[in-house]
Amino acid sequence: MSTLGSGAVPTTRPKPPLLYNPKVRGIAYQVVLCAVIALLAWAAVDNAADNLARAKIASGFGFWDTTAGFDISQTLIAYTTTSSYGRAFWVGLLNTLLVAGLGIVFATILGFIIGIARLSKNWLVAKLAGGYVEIIRNLPLLLQLLFWYNAVLKALPGIRESIAIPGGGFLNNRGLFLPEPVFLPASRAAVIALAVGIVVAIGYRIWAKRRQMRTGQLAPVGWVALGLVIVLPLGVLALSGFPVQFNYPESGRFNIRGGMEVLPEFMALLFGLVVYTAAFIAEVVRAGISAVPRGQTEAAYSLGLRPGLTLRLVVVPQAMRVIVPPLTNQYLNLTKNSTLAVAIGYPDLVQIFAGTVLNQTGQAVEVIAITMAVYLVISLVTSGLMNLYNRRIAIVER
Amino acid sequence: MKRVVFSVAVAAILAAAASAASAQTLNTIKTRGSLNCGANGTLAGFGLPDSQGRWTGLDVDLCKAIAAAIFNDPSKVKFVPLTAKDRFTALQSGEVDVLARNTTWTSSRDTSLGLNFTAVNYYDGQGFLVRKSLKVNSALELNDAAVCVQQGTTTELNLADYFRANKMKLKTVTFATADEAIKAYDASRCDAYTTDVSGLAGERLRLANSDDHIVLPEVISKEPLGTVVRHGDDQWFDIVKWTHYAMVNAEELGITKANVDDQGKSDNPDVKRLLGTEGKHGEALGLPNDWAVRIVKHVGNYGEVFERNVGQGSPLKIPRGLNALWNKGGLQYAPPVR
After folding, report:
1. Is B159 on the interface with A (CB under 8 A)?
2. DSSP A296-354
């Protein structure tokens, strides 16, 4: 009993000298490493600048405002041969974003359809989807793009044998030409109606969801939304006497002018990217759905849900948690793969900026640095958005 | 600590690489045992390998002539096929010693790329190839036409300039390589294909039905095609320049592949100086005195090279035109060896 207080062990050990303190040493190592990396980066930049100056290669970003002098086949913003290299950069960036954005949307739709089809109980559907995935994802994308481009060019008729599309459009190997709607000022009411319709439709959906939670009654959300978003603006348009004119494409001596023009290069690139990426997305979707335990489906059936509803309400929401992270990878891949546009003459950022602008100015270091920075930003934004979405659908811990 | 030492070593190597860039090109080539020549690879008459990998063409022969002058062996050349877009980067970075790839001499290329143009080995101009069925007789009738063009060329800029100057509308379809551009033209993607006139002659022969196509008479630009070297090595610049001049001088003096040995006994002082039996003009270049003999014996004079590759001895059958000697109505003129 009396031994309790004896053998007085000191409660705090003596502090080790600073040199042997693991925490201090760890921090010191990291500081040294950072300094070395900074030194290396500085040496590389200095070395490049030194070499460029020695070889009398122009450097700096002065070229940005210089006249470009070359023509671009697809421009979403105003661009002429007298525009600057900077303007050409934006034209290329928008063309890249256009093909990547549309590609992501269509590849997701096609990928989900094929991924679900691969799990179908119908033997033929499942095997067809499996065959699609195995063939498409095992062939190099560049070959596929060249194939689709030549398929588009060879299969479509020449400019003089254009296929006339009812309503004033044309299809030939120079592209798809459609009447372009020109909205007159009086059509502003319809635009306001569209905006109101969208807001009301979203509000109605929230209300219907709450009511369903409370009373279990279903509301025809889809039909009401369709009415609000499409029928309402069209009705307003009709009431104001259709203040819309169409700019019809017309054949000139060589080409079709006016209207909206979709280049065959764009069609081939979009089609190739969608078909290729959809094969990978299909596998991601299949894996996600397979990861949902069979018991979930059985439980849904035993509650009386039909197979379609089971898939939509029980299986897919759980599968999404598995699907979204690898899906993000596929979106990034599609965006980066769009740089293969250069092989089939689609004017994307790499073709215009890292191609023609680099060659005309000779400023490889600056141009490539800008191009890499742009793709980095696009990729980081894409994955940032997907991470936000992933957080929303993640399991809520209760 | 090991990591730090390693990093410093890497930094030191990077810094060392910077100063080695301006070393003597001729010595590097001699040590390596071969000349690295940036060539076209897809253009008949200028640079094209055959099925056995043997390169032929006007530009190719210039590289062979340089190798002959250095090594007395025209086969000691490694040809590196380059696209129009990549050619300058390949030369700047030292991947090739000389660029002989039908490259137009312009002021901005000469001044801002860190490169020097040596001499013009072919005077060219830009033209248009169209289908006969279009019934077009002049480039001025091409308003609204779609034109296929290769990226990274002066052609791309001249095309836009020409249509702008003549107030015509244009649809350009740009491809990374001439191969893809001509294929798209063949598939009727474009009404016209444009490049240098010499290139049109070669590309026309590769089309499915070459007789259905014609080259329009207009030549819309000056395209002096020359060989290019890096800034900073004047000896190498002189060697490349004088290799071309030796071939032109040889033609002017009537020295050919066949008679070069007999000409060695000539009493003509111009011939004696060129062939190295009088003076030390080869040594001044850093080459043996019989450098010009080696060039003419292995490759030929300018006229022979021209006729063999693009002239009457070739499928292209391009007339001498601007590329005739100065005393025969052309522009090919070489300073005297003296």
Report:
1. yes
2. HHHHHHHTT--HHHIIIIIIHHHHHHHHHHHHHHHHHHHHHHGGGGGGGT---HHHIII
